[in-house]
Amino acid sequence: MTADDHDPAIVGTPPPPPASAPPAALRAPLALRWPDERATAAFAARLAAQPALRDAFLTLDGPLGAGKTTLVRHLLRALGVQGRIKSPTYAVVEPHESPDAPGGPLAIWHFDFYRFDDPREWEDAGFRDLFAAPGLKIAEWPDKAAAVLPPADLAIRIAPEAADAESGNGADAGASCDPDDAGPAPARRVLLAAGTPRGRVLADALRAFADAPLPETAPEPAPETDPRGPAA
Ligand SMILES: Nc1ncnc2c1ncn2[C@@H]1O[C@H](COP(=O)(O)OP(=O)(O)OP(=O)(O)O)[C@@H](O)[C@H]1O
Ligand SMILES: [Mg+2]
After folding, report:
1. pTM of the entire structure?
2. Which residues line ligand 1 (CB under 6 A)?
3. How many A from CA of 199 to the centre of ligand 2?
4. What is the pLDDT of residues 146-164, one digit of tens each?
5. Among 128, 129, 93, which Cα is nearest to 112's?
C-alpha cells in the first residue's frame, strides 16, 4: 500500500471523539408496564418520594379509562392527602393540601381539561396564577389546553395494553378501556418523557426503579368513581 492509496483528507486527520452519552434532552422516554393497579400505586409511591416532584408540572395523556385519575389518586394518597379525592372532571381543577408531604406542606392542583374549550377561561378562572404559584400541578387531557399550558416537566402517557396490541400503535391508539368487558383488566403501557431539567431528574430517579420488584403489600385501591361515568 502506498500513500496514494489513502484519502488525503483522512490521512493525518484525528479520529472523531468517541460518541458520548446522548444529551439528557434526547434520552428516549422511559417505558414501563403496570400489570395491575398495584403497580400503578407502587409507581405513585416512588414518584411521591422524589424531592423534585414539589413544584413540578405533570401531564397525563391516554384514552378514557386509561388510569390517569387512578394514578393521581394514588399519588395524592402517597403524598399524604386525606379525605375524599374528587375527580376534577366538571370543576376542571380540584385543589388539595398535603400538610405531611415529604419536605413539608404541599399545595397540589389536579386539572382535567377534558371539557376545557375556551382559552379565556385560563385567565378568567385564575389558572395562570395557579401555574405561577409554588406547588405540584397535574393535568389530565393536556392537549385540550395545549395553547395555554406551559411545557410539562414530566409527560406521562398511559394506555391499556389491549389497545396497544390491537392497533400496533401504542398509546396513540386512542382506544378506551371498557370496564364492562369481561376478564381481568388489561395491563397498562406507560411512557414517561421529561420536558425540562426538573423532569429529567424525576425520570432518571424513576428509571432506577423501573425493574425493581413491587412491594409485598398491596396498597389500598382508589375507590372513587369518575363522575364522567363509564368509559366509552
Ligand atoms: N394498572 C392499572 N392502572 C390504573 N388503573 C387501572 C389499572 N388496571 C385497572 N384499572 C382501572 O381502570 C380504571 C381507570 O379509570 P380512571 O378514571 O383512572 O381513568 P382516566 O384515564 O382518568 O379516564 P378519563 O379519561 O375518563 O379521565 C379504574 O377503574 C381502575 O381501577
Ligand atoms: Mg380521569
Report:
1. 0.80
2. 34, 36-37, 39-40, 62, 64-70, 140, 177, 179, 185, 188, 226, 228, 231
3. 22
4. 999 999 999 999 999 974 4
5. 93
